Input
Amino acid sequence: MIEYILPAVPACMTVGALAAAAGVIVRRRRLNAAWYKGVTVEGRCLRTFLTTTTWQRGTHRSTSRTISHAYEFTTPEGRTLRFEENGPSTVFEGDVVAVRYPPGRPDLATARPPGDRGVKAAFRRQLAFLTFATLLCVAVTAVFSMVGSLLTGVGDSPGLPSSPGFPSSPSAPAPLPAAPSPPALPPLPTGPPDGFPTPPSGWPTGMPQMPEPPGSR
Output
């Protein structure tokens, strides 16, 4: 299971980076279609406003300001549309501008002039960042996949072989040999040994009788 969980997060990040890069390329193609193959009509700047964006990371705080414009134009078919877009600071409220959009897509209109350097530079920065992010995510996915495979192989192995010169885990000690039984004792003699001289006749063989004390009768 671990071999699938580890590379899942960077793989999802890779898919997200690729999707973002695809979105940038699609926007660039639509802009080129509006610039070089689209319909050009006259538009008017309705208002100019300033957009402020603030980022805060810990104690560091940064702020950026962007000038935006609201435009209005009328298509050859008589439709009146409005849109908002970032633009140069030289455009003011009431100015007449050229509005371009791809054929049949007035909802993708732009007032930026063809070949605008700021737009091209922004596209290059976005593509460079997304390309780097995609390559980084692919590398992290490969590393995590390798680590997951190694962990799975270690977990499934029956056991590591013992190193030469070192015994494996000690087993139960062998039982000690039984102590030898002591040798049997020789039989005890029941009579005088052979060749022992016999006592002479009349030799007392019993216990002597003790004399009775006087006055016992």
User: Anything to note?
Assistant: The mean pLDDT is 79. The chain is about 35% helix and 20% strand. The helical segments are 2-5, 8-36, 117-156.
